[in-house]
Amino acid sequence: MTESASDLPQGLINGVVDLIHRHRNEPRHKISLDTELGDDLLIDGDDARDLLVDFAKEFEVDIRNFDFDAYFGPEAGFNPFVWLYWKVTGKSHTFKPLTVRALVIAAMLRRLE
Questions:
Q1: Quick one: which H or E segment has residue 78?
Q2: Which fold would CATH assign to domain 5-109?
Q3: Which DSSP string corresponds to 28-40?
Q4: Residue 32 and residue 51: Cα distance in Å, rounded?
Q5: Which residues of 10-41 are buried (b: 16+ CB within 10 A; e: fewer)?
Q6: In this structure, are residues 75 and 45 in contact, taking their beta carbons and an 8 Å threshold?
Q7: pLDDT by residue (tens digit) across 41-92?
Q8: Can you tell me the distance from the alpha carbon of 47 to that of 30, in angstroms, rounded to the nearest whole number?
């Protein structure tokens, strides 16, 4: 079930958007509930980890069971060997999307899994 914007507390939405803005300096008006941290904002690796740790502290969210590696890659630049493997095998690693909406819901539930 996807929560509509009207079902979510505006204060939490604003708080999560502000946190992302502080981390990425992304204009607030460009961050919506459907914005994906990885694909849309290019948050990955240590940057994603830092954001989620700050998110957990600021909103008192338990992230101990959050599978970071399912959502974000490692802190690394372009790797030609990995790219070549993906090209030759047709396989690539895809990550689950983590949206602003999911963070707002996690803040409501006080856990992110």
A1: none
A2: 1.10.1200
A3: GGG--TT-BTTTT
A4: 17
A5: eebbebbbebbeebbebeeeebebebbbbebb
A6: yes
A7: 988 889 999 999 999 999 999 999 999 989 987 776 656 766 676 667 766 5
A8: 19
* Tokens read off for 85: 């493997």
Closest CA to 55 of 26, 23, 32: 23
Lookup result for tokens 């009207």: 6
Residue 92 CA neighbour count, 13 Å, CB half = 10
Look at residue 33 and tell me whether its pLDDT is greater than 50: yes
For residue 88, what pLDDT is reported? 77
Token pair, residue 46, equals 């240590």
Give the pair of three-digit tokens for residue 40: 């849309």
